[in-house]
Every structure is written in structure tokens, then in C-alpha cells.
Amino acid sequence: MMYVHRIAGWAPQTEPAAAPSHAETKMGSLRIQGVVRLAQRVRRELEQPVSAARQAHLREVVADALAQVQRIVARHGTTIAHLPAPTRRACHFLANLTFNTTAPAATAPHIPPPGTVTLVGLKTSWELLLDRLAQASTPEERAALYGSIASASARIERDLQASGTSGAQLTPTSRMIRGWLAYFGQRENFDAYTAAVGRARPVLTAALARQTRFQPPVVVQLRVIRGLYRVRGLPNATRVALPTPMITFSTALFAALADSIFGRGARQPLLEAAAGEAYQAVQAEVEALEGLAEQTAGVHHDLDTTFRRVNEQCFASALTRPRLTWSRTFTGRVFGHYDPLRDTVMISCTLDHPDVPAFVLDFVMYHELLHKQLGVDWRNGRAAAHTAEFRAAERRFGRYPEAAAVLRRIATEQ
After folding, report:
1. pLDDT tens across 86-126, in order?
2. Assign residue 169 a region: left if phi > 0, alpha if psi is -120 to 50, beta otherwise?
3. In terms of CB atoms within 10 Å, which of 109, 110, 331, 391 comes out highest?
4. Can you name the CATH fold of 303-413?
């Protein structure tokens, strides 16, 4: 297995719509590639203890990047304020970084920060495995595929151990595939996969025949995705990608899913099943096998501290702790999200800033925990999250007007 880690340098690339004029750049046609990626990687690195020497290097990289951005926008007759929002937010983050010059000297070789190590070639191999799994029709073919999955998983674990690489250091894609291979490298789980495909394919095929947009045959994949399904039309088939935990779905649930995908079926039974114990148990095991240690500490704020404070003050410590995570991108208007399928609260890393008061982070956490506490209100088979009950509860937050005002300001500025 080949490993790649990149962060040391930065090479900006511009993608103007042509040779943009001042007016064109104001409309957002100037693109500077690499700034957002750099901000994300620097942020992930600073979430960990970093030596003074490493911080000095990062300071130089950041200063050089910002200077190059300034030169680029000046050359095109515009300013950072007129860049696309993601780039503008990344520049704001980098420009407001503070470095600890009293950090201890490094006592060991620098290791790659979280989320920066790629297992090269793994995604391509995995996609081929999924395609072969969807087409396997004989016990011999399935046995060979199980052997390929088990051996690939064992090889990854050997290579990670030999290189001293942890799951947290892997990129999200490499980490996700690692967990999937480890889970289905166990024979009983592999058999559950093939059995689930056997239940899903006939009902999906029957539903497909009742519409004209997508063509048969149906290619079914169970993989790590967000949401309940993804459908893609191929040249001579239709691929339906489903979340891994749907290996627990019965034929009746797959029929309801098929009606939701290709008809107008209600999503309520699907979401209720996804919130069930069997589905959540598979989800938890796959995520555990990915090897990602939860990282709640940001550069300036800690999500675990925020959750404990909000749970005690607003919920009498009655809520079980969800998984807590910072977003990977700097968002400008969506500052939080609760994923009931994974029982995960995501907070925008835009709020991990010294100018953002703790009570603002508390309010966003409170908002997302209300979704966890109140659940979904179903009306005629449709989900309603921000109900009148929800809005009334939201306004009971102690500093609601102040927090809402700060978030509006951040959304406007970013």
C-alpha cells in the first residue's frame, strides 16, 4: 500500500473566467485554488500539540499563502472581500491565527496531522470490488470476493502498523474504506451483505419497471454514504447506492425504500428503521473499525466542554452524549447539523475562532441538541423539524437574541 501526505508547501492556482475585469471579479469569477484546503489542513494540525519549530514552519506557510493571495487579487484589480465565500472564509481564518511561540521542542519526528494520509489506489480497488459484488451470482464468485475483501483488510492493517499510521491520520475516504473492508472482512457480515442485496434487488427492479427515467438492470451497492440512498443512471444500468447498515433491512423495508426512490412513498418507516437498534449497531461498529478517535478540541473551542455545559444548564444533564465533530469546511450560513442516523452533532469550524463567544457556540449546540431531544414531527408522511414547539424551545435559550445577532453578523461578514 502506498501512502501520501502533503502539507509542507502550497501552490496557489487561479481560475479566472478569462482575464477578468474589476467588475467580473466582483461577481466572483476569480478562483484561487488551494486556500481552502490549506486552511483545513492547518486547522487540523493545530488541533493537536505542535512543537515550536513546527508552528514556526506553519506560520511561514500561512504568511506566504496570504501574501500570494494578496498579489493575485491585486493583479486582477479586486480584493479578498470579493473572492468566493469559501476562499474568503479560509483567508479570514488564516489571517486570524495565533501561534504559541512557547510550545515545547519536538521530542519525536513530526507525524502527519489528522486527515492527511491517503492510501493511494485503495478507492479504485474498492469501487471495483463493489461492482463485482453487485454482479456476483454464484457461490464460487462470492467466495472469491470474500477472500479479496479479507486479504485487502489484513494488508491495510499490517501496513498501517508497520508505518505507525493511525486511523485518525487517514483522509476521510481512506478511513471510511478501511472500516468497510474490516467489517465485511468478517464472514458473517459478508454473508449479511449478499443476503441484503438478494432482498433489495427484486423489489428495486420491480419499482424501476414502473417508471421511465432510469433503465434496468439495477446495480445495488451497500456503502458508506450520507442520506438514505443515491441513484445514478449508467450507460446500460441504474446504480442504487445504499448505506451500509441497510444490510439489516427486511424485504418489506426495501420495498418501502424502492417506493420512496422510484415513486412517492413516505420516508417515515425508513427513518424510523434507521433510528432502530439493529441499524445503529452496524453503524457504530463500522465507524469503530475506521479507527477515528473523536477529536472535539478545536483551535480555540472544545465541543465536549460545550456539550457538557449545555446539557447541564439546558437539559438537566438528561441527554446522552452524541458524537461531536467539527465540520471539515468553513461554512457561512449553516453553523450546525444533527444527523439522527449517526447520532452526530456537527458544528461549523467557522465558529472555532477567538472572536466567537462561548455562549454563541452554546446556542448552536443547544439548537442541534433540541433536534436530538424533540426528534421529527411527522405530518402526512413528511418530516417537520423546525416546528412551532421547536422554535418556542429554541427561544428559551438564555442569551438567544444576542447569539442570533452574532450569528447573523458572522453570516453577513463571511
Report:
1. 888 888 888 888 776 554 544 545 567 777 788 888 999 99
2. alpha
3. 331
4. Zincin-like (3.30.2010)
User: Residue 205's CB: how many other CB atoms inside 10 A?
Assistant: 15
Average pLDDT value over all residues in the chain: 83
265, 203 Cβ separation under 8 angstroms: no
**Cα separation, 350 vs 411, whole angstroms:** 10
237: pLDDT strictly greater than 90: yes
324 by DSSP, 3-state: which? strand
* AA identity, residue 117: V
User: What distance in Å separates the CA atoms of residue 228 and residue 261, rounded to the nearest whole number?
Assistant: 9
Evaluate if residue 291 carries a pLDDT over 90: no
Contact 278, 253 (CB under 8 A): no
Classified as helix, coil or strand, 296 is: coil
22, pLDDT greater than 60: no
Domain boundaries, the chain: 2-95, 117-289, 303-413
CB 382 within 8 A of CB 264: no
Contact (CB, 8 A) for 56 and 108: no
Q: How many Å apart are CA 110 and CA 172, to the nearest integer?
A: 21
Distances (CA, A) of 380 to 254, 263, 377, 384: 21, 16, 10, 10
Q: Which cell numbers hold the place of 40?
A: 483545513
> Is the CB of residue 242 less than 8 Å from the CB of residue 254?
no
Cβ 219 vs Cβ 131: under 8 Å:
yes
pLDDT of residue 378: 65
